[in-house]
Design brief:
Elements lengths: L1 H21 L14 E10 L9 E6 L5 E5 L5 E7 L1 E7 L5 E5 L4 E3 L4 E2 L4 E5 L1
Length: 124
């Protein structure tokens, strides 16, 4: 019992001593908080400018393959918050449709707002 208390006390003293020398909080800067990132937004429209509601936009992390999905609103707009990473975007196509304009790959950093990542769809 005494040995356990002594070990715990020594560990506490070592931790306090290291923190006192550091002068600030001890933080692992290599670790990235899960869920912290930025926002991606845009619209999905037909070639004539008509907004396309209820379309699924898929945001795919190019490194990990993680996917995030959001549906477009009545105005054809979408907004999604995702962790910091590089993403490619895809949109749901219906029979007879093709993508006339698609956003380029985007590199999203913490706090970024990558807006106007718009899709334009056309009938084949």
């Amino acid at each position: 019992m005494y040995a356990r208390q002594l070990t715990a006390t020594l560990l506490l003293l070592l931790t306090v001593s290291c923190a006192a020398r550091h002068g600030g909080a001890v933080v692992d800067t290599r670790a990235k908080p899960v869920g912290v990132g930025g926002t991606i937004s845009g619209t999905v429209r037909a070639v004539g400018g008509e907004p396309l509601s209820g379309r699924t936009v898929t945001v795919i992390d190019t490194k990990s393959g993680a996917t995030f999905r959001v549906s477009t609103s009545a105005s054809g707009g979408y907004t999604i918050q995702v962790p910091a990473a590089t993403y490619r975007l895809e949109v749901e196509l219906r029979p007879g449709e093709a993508v006339a304009k698609q956003p380029a790959q985007t590199n999203l950093n913490v706090g970024d707002l990558d807006a106007q990542l718009d899709f334009v769809l056309t009938a084949r």
